[in-house]
Design a protein that fits this description.
Length: 499
């Protein structure tokens, strides 16, 4: 235990003694110590016989921490203390039973039913000998299993149904048959849990390297459809000769392929930094990317049509982006996460169109990076996973290889451009207004966008050249910046290709 953490716990103990309270450490903090697992931002749970909220409120003022009541009825509060680069979360709760053992009986799983008086914890000679372990937590940690200790465990808090899988994914522990049987009988109760709490457990699963296995298991147990009911219309929807799986199975397969791709890129520092960026709270881009990959074809069932004897999915990316935004809102994701997911789904076809040519033009690449913005790499990785999960009889080895080469080149180009000097426009809107005596209008933005594109691909290099180009463009009242493309730059889906 680091000195900073020890000092904080010492201060909490001194306060508890001054209030004549016996304070116990419980649950995951002790479990993680036994597993030799350290979290960058520790969360530490305490319990005391009663009056936890008033205890926590006064302690928060003393140690200058944030304070919030989590559950007034059950006497539970949270303190948050930021020190240097770490955030410490301390939860204090009243006994859930008449005694400490009664409290531990109401913990979610045996591996979290450990307790230790704080004074004993801070005395090195007494840890772990003084651990209070009435339900075999240490045994189950050694056996690597998720075991229930009370038949009402999921009635008390249905979120524990999902937590069983997040704990299993994080630690590689097996959920016991007894626990799985009870989960199956109680799973519908998960529908009564707030989506903020469901989101947190789901993202713990998505953050693990084998999230695919758990998504499959959750689907088999009919739990995933409680979280994302939209997936049910994907089940059994065939996709034509480019694909070997229906829409839902393909979506699972794409997540599996993404996890393999991440392993392929494990030695690429740029990709690693990108994937482990924190987007919101403690949720990473990696976890969000897996969700985006799973949802990339969610619009296909609604967009499916038959035309000239062919199955087509024209516009499924637009339908999918709309559905994805609704799912993101329901999961209470941040605006940044919502926009990122929406872009992944909306633009996931674009790299495939670029890969129609072995060497996409500078203009096409510029437009791709402009439209996808900071999600350019996310979209490329989704596209790569999508392509690897597509193995129908009309998908040729040549097209697959070309897709891989083009995507790899785009990834390299993106990171190279990120390290270059920041792009500076040759002319501004004010320049155009002064030079050509224009009034502010949408036309100015269109002209600037066209010049910016020409500058990026090396066709315009000086301010003089930019102004000359602007002069030519001004005479075109209905300027179409992206000639031959849709308004946001996505090439028309010729032949309504389903891929």
């Amino acid at each position: 235990m680091v000195t900073l953490e020890f000092n904080l716990l010492e201060e909490i103990l001194r306060f508890a003694k001054s209030k004549r309270k016996r304070l116990y450490l419980v649950g995951g903090y002790l479990r993680d110590i036994l597993l030799k697992r350290q979290k960058p931002n520790p969360d530490i749970d305490f319990c005391l016989e009663k009056q936890a909220i008033s205890f926590g409120r006064i302690l928060a003022r003393k140690i200058h921490a944030g304070f919030v009541v989590l559950d007034k009825e059950h006497g539970c509060c949270r303190l948050v203390k930021r020190i240097q680069e770490k955030t410490y979360t301390f939860d204090f709760a009243d006994f859930r039973g008449k005694t400490l053992k009664g409290d531990l009986l109401h913990r979610d799983f045996s591996i979290n039913s450990l307790a230790l008086e704080l004074s004993d914890f801070l005395t090195a000679k007494k840890f772990p000998k003084a651990l209070i372990d009435p339900f075999g937590a240490q045994k189950d940690l050694k056996l690597k299993r998720i075991q229930i200790i009370h038949p009402a465990v999921f009635d008390e808090d249905p979120l524990r149904i999902l937590r069983a899988f997040s704990l299993s994914a994080i630690f590689g522990f097996k959920i016991t048959p007894e626990a799985l049987k009870l989960i199956k009988s109680k799973k519908e109760k998960l529908g009564n849990v707030s989506f903020e709490r469901i989101r947190d457990e789901l993202f713990k699963i998505l953050s693990q390297p084998n999230a695919y296995d758990y998504l499959i298991l959750l689907d088999q147990l009919k739990i995933l459809k409680i979280i994302i009911p939209e997936i049910e219309i994907m089940r059994g929807v065939n996709q034509g000769p480019y694909h070997h799986l229906d829409v839902l199975k393909h979506s699972f397969e794409a997540v599996k392929k993404l996890e393999e791709i991440i392993i392929d890129f494990k030695n690429n520092p740029d990709i690693r930094v990108f994937l482990y960026q924190i987007i919101s709270s403690e949720r990473t881009r990696l976890a969000l990317l897996k969700l985006g990959t799973f949802l990339h074809d969610i619009g296909k069932p609604q967009a499916k049509r038959r035309k000239a004897g062919k199955t087509i999915f024209h516009g499924h990316e637009k339908v999918g982006a709309h559905l994805t935004r609704n799912i993101a809102r329901r999961l209470k994701l941040s605006n940044d996460e919502l926009e990122a997911l929406s872009k992944m789904v909306f633009w996931h076809l674009r790299p495939g169109y670029l890969a129609d040519s072995p060497q996409p033009s500078a203009r096409a690449k510029f437009r791709y990076f402009r439209d996808t913005g900071i999600e350019a790499i996310s979209v490329l990785l989704v596209s790569l996973a999508d392509q690897r999960a597509t193995r129908g009889r009309l998908t040729t080895q040549q097209s697959r290889a070309q897709h891989e080469v083009v995507v790899a080149a785009l990834i390299r180009e993106y990171f190279r451009k990120q390290k270059e000097k920041k792009f500076t426009r040759l002319v501004s809107g004010d320049d155009l207004i002064r030079k050509f005596k224009l009034t502010p209008s949408p036309l100015i933005g269109e002209i600037l966008s066209e010049i910016e594109e020409l500058q990026a691909i090396g066709k315009v290099k000086t301010k003089k050249e930019a102004l000359e180009k602007a002069k030519k463009l001004i005479g075109t009242p209905r300027l179409l910046v992206l000639r031959g493309c849709c308004p946001r730059g996505q090439r028309r889906q010729n032949e309504c290709r389903e891929k």
